[in-house]
Amino acid sequence: MIPMTLAEIAEATGGTLADGADPASLVTGDLSFNSKTVSSGGLFCCLPGKHADGHDYAQQAVEGGAAAALATRPVGIPAVLVGNVLTAMADVARAVAHRYTGTVIAITGSAGKTSTKDMLRQVLAEDGPTVATPKSYNNEIGFPTTVSQVRQDSRYLVLEMGARGKGHIDELCKIAPPRIATVLGVGSAHIGEFGSREAIADAKAEIVRALPAHGVAVLNGDDPLVAAMRADTDAQVITFGTGMDCDVRARGVKIDEEGRPSFSLRYGPKVVRVQLAVHGRHNVTNALAAAATAFAAGVPFGRIATALQRAQLTSGGRMDVHRHGRLTLINDSFNASPESMEAALEALQDVAGGRRMVAVLGEMAELGDEAAAWHDRIGRQVAKAGVLQVVTVGGKFADALGEAARCVSSEVSVARAGDAQEALEMVRGLIKPGDTVLVKGANALNLGVVAEALLNS
Asked: Cα separations (Å) of 18 from 10, 40, 44, 73, 312?
């Protein structure tokens, strides 16, 4: 963290110093809400939880290296006492962002945020010290924690911004105002919360409206709802996609025998062939978004192209392809929206390359009144993709997915599991040497344990 004294933290949060706390004591490490992973000189945030209260672990945090705590009551260590710890975390992050002189980059979209962020982080790191959201910590807890990780010499701060309702992104932008804002796409994720794709687009557009006039909006030119966001800002606009009108575009997309895409990256008069190290055609869009964002930040063309070819998806559970003996496993289990499910099935076909395909597919969450229709559509695509063995996980919508697959093809064998453990037992009995297995579903289903167990067996 950019160093702050306890007195400055108290001023930023409207808090008071606990008895015995030295106003001049410096906090130099990050915000942390886990006493086991505090950084040296950091600020431990005593968040209340369902099963534990952070206030009870303050002493352990100090023993682990924390300089002080944010708390609502005295905890026996140096602390800033506040009315609400979560609100105070945002206040501290806002104060840090105000002192930060580098470039703040914000990314949102219904799918692909974390994959794009992973690639962008690796591209920008070639240009200067870069801090980026770990994994997909893009909510009201993870966001301020990420902002606190920035240092005085950090050139770039890359922040994922998720939204579960109108105004969420706007609030995050008020904590760390972006100079560059990237919008990947408007899909059906969380449509049960928003009600329509147009409402989702309006919420995502908050990231563009937060830009200053000297900022840059990086927009998916292939998505009409995103492209229309140019009307929401006076900032410069750079578009990316496959359309001829896009500023940063891909042409001649090809898939190699491993299921990895390559394409010609074009920006202005410059063009170069890029072979990605990641799997899945959909990652062409994510790579274009990362490239366009890096162009907006002023990174040279050659440096971007070289870094993109080396970039990996480091956050886990996203198109992780493993060769394990004669089994090929695609672990895409972190989460599932309709669009990402479709992309994963397409990637399964590319990676399998004609080999037998098995899919462990969990229900998709937060689709509201459209849930049944989407599960029916995905089930039909499973069959059309040529998947022969399917294990669905969940309740009635898992049944709908399986039934739709059977309606399209009588060759599809479908079994339903109630949870991840049951799914693991089923798929172990189904797979054969040479199979390619996809594991994907809503995060709450914890299907990552299926992928991990298959790899370790």
From this structure: 10, 21, 14, 8, 45
